Amino acid sequence: MKEVFPHIQQVFGEVKVLESSPFPSGMAFPIHRLKLRTPEGPLDVVVKLYPAGFQAAFEREARALQTLPVHQVPVPELLGTSELADSSALVMEWIEGCPLMDLLDQEGWMQRFVEQLVQIHLPVETLQLQNRSEHAERWHSRFENGFQSQYAGVLAWVEQHLQDAAALGPVLLHQDYHPWNVLVRPAGGLVVLDWDWSVGDPREDVAWTRFILQKASRPELAEDFTQGYCALVPEARDHLEVFDVLAHLRWLQMLDRPSARGPITEEIRQWIEHLKAETHQLIQTITGISVTQGN
């Protein structure tokens, strides 16, 4: 609570915090739900904290929440931002509702999930983004130099196979689109959370969503999602397996990066090593390249 309250003061001034509780968010940034008493009345908010060193992620998500409502992309209302010496914060509306994952097995919800991603994939020319050219980066620039050296063989395989694939986009990419990042309001409206966005080929998002559903041991949902998206965007099926490899590589890089939540315990370290070995095997299945035996 002590790390959250200065940000609340910076956004709202002097208010009373009635309740505060951390909100589970996996390996992502720390999130807190707060019930406030303001001069205008009670207010429920969400505070998402970005520790020092994650300023770029803070600025990227803030820009998305400020810009995307103009394009009818449903995002949480941004109530304010705060920047202090040791952290930055987004203060957003608290959204009543449930993760779309809770409904995805029911008729019609997969179609809505797919259609929402298609809507997100706006052509970059339509977006009112500052310095948007800085985000139109080639896919390999998303990987750090040391990572590129470690997985040089796999990245070369990707480069070779993408030469045969027709380029799509560039479009707006969510970068972490999955049914736990989409909330369903009580009235049925959708809200898309966690905007670590970029610009690129829409198949990057499609492959990442497939990957997350497969990691959740729901391969049938991954297949339904793929079929649904490709029915609306048939060209997305071309060389999709190459973007599957990119999704696996992105996951490996995320596992190597320091956590915004603090130190890694030995138990978590062993779990990460297991996930990396599992992902190496998946990459080998697609590419035929044994990652563990060098690249």
Report on the architecture of this protein.
Helices cover 40% and strands 18% of the residues. With 295 residues, the protein is an alpha+beta fold. The chain folds into two domains: 5-93, 2-Layer Sandwich (Phosphorylase Kinase, domain 1), CATH 3.30.200.20; 98-293, Aminoglycoside 3'-phosphotransferase, Chain: A, domain 2, CATH 3.90.1200.10. The strands form three sheets. The protein has a five-stranded antiparallel beta sheet, with helices on both faces. The protein has a three-stranded antiparallel beta sheet with strand order 6-8-9, with no helix packed on it.
Average per-residue pLDDT, rounded, comes to: 90
Strand segment count: 10
CATH class of the largest domain: Alpha Beta
How would you spell out the order of helices and strands? HEEEHEEEHHHEEEEHHHH
Discrete helix count: 9
Strand order of the largest sheet: 1-2-3-5-4
**CATH homologous superfamily (4th level) name of the largest domain:** Aminoglycoside phosphotransferase (APH), C-terminal lobe
Q: What helical percentage do the residues reach?
A: 25-40%
Shape descriptor reads: globular
User: Which topology of the largest domain does CATH recognise?
Assistant: Aminoglycoside 3'-phosphotransferase, Chain: A, domain 2
What is the total domain count? 2
- Residue fraction in strands: 15-25%
Reported for the largest beta sheet, the result is: 5 strands, antiparallel
Radius of gyration: 20 Å
Distance between the termini: 46 Å
Name the structural class: alpha+beta
User: Low-confidence parts, pLDDT < 50 over ≥5 residues?
Assistant: 130-136
CATH architectural grouping of the largest domain: Alpha-Beta Complex
